[in-house]
Write a structure and sequence with these properties.
Helix content is 25%, strand content 40%. It is of the alpha+beta class. The protein starts with a helix and ends with a strand. It comes from Virgibacillus salarius.
Amino acid sequence: MQKLLLSVTVLLFLFSCSNEKSNDHTKNESVVSEGVDENASETLSFEEKIQKVIKANSYNPEDIVDYDLKQDYIYVFLYNPTNGLSPAILKNEKDKLVWIKSWDAIQTSSLSAGDAPIVTIVQPEDADVKDVKIFGKSARMTKFTIEITEDFSKEVKYWVYYSKQPDEVLDNITENIEYMK
């Protein structure tokens, strides 16, 4: 009789553990399906929302190396060895990220879209550059290492400067960049 009681108890215990796992699995499935459903996007983290928009616009979310928040705009910087540095601008509209614009394979450029702050991105070819000033002001550097093969990697550096001044964009931008070694 004790063996039967013990067997039933063990069976009930295993069954209850099995239900907990099943419930957890259901919760995970609902999170995944909510991630696909636009109406349920509030359950995604901010980074996951960025990745979702990047992927929906034919970029690889794994290529994201940095992003900056400026007012309602998100500047996303992607890098891959084939295309180089590619920035994208997203806008945060009522907890929904909207794709504004992107550029492929830039080196040194001032970029703008609508009323978004102007971003100047400098990626010098000279690896000895230690700092960059744009319009006399220090730019923020981002540096990372990309592994090309098992035994070869490449260090990538670029500088970013934001402005709301329309005269600090496009025209003669290279004349207003100072490289410090």
